[in-house]
Amino acid sequence: MKKGKGFLIVSLIVLLFLMGCSLNGHTEKTDSNADTSDKASKKGLYVLSIEEQGMMVVNAIPSDFSSNGGEKEYFDAISYHYPKASEELEVGQRVLVEADGPILESYPGQGKAKKVTILPEYKPDKADLSESQVVRKALKELESESTSNWIAAIRNITYDKEKDTWKVDIKQEESMYEFDIDDK
Fold first, then answer.
1. CA–CA distances in Å: residue 100 to residues 8, 110, 115, 156, 164
2. Which helix (H) or strand (E) holds 95?
3. Which residues is 110 bridged to in the sheet?
4. Radius of gyration of the chain (CA)
């Protein structure tokens, strides 16, 4: 009987240690030699807000549920508990997130992030600003223009080399916003 209790105590200690390790999570970059790319990408999730203990992310590519009577352009959003978010991430970055456990199916979804991979930023040749800088500026303009507290989704972001401006399309609830951001 004593051997069984000892095994149980050791097992609980190991379990608590492993849980403690996964609570902090870790962040990495896809390729440390390529922080930027001159090719636009829709891979991953946009970080739209960062709190002390977490972040809100929204898919860069919408799902189409119109064949089932749902939205044609649905952007999934998840609020992740991730203590390192305020230290290691910036609003506007695109990331991949490995969840640590289940995701609650509310909107936005809720869960814990085990690992966050920062994807290379889009920064075209001749552009002064990077994708995340442009997203931050567009979100700031949205904040002054919109009265909604609903989650924003980055529908599209393009750089016009001739005009030296960025165009950012944002969806918030049923409203669509288009912002022209000077590349300065």
1. 24, 11, 8, 29, 41
2. strand 94-99
3. 79, 104
4. 20
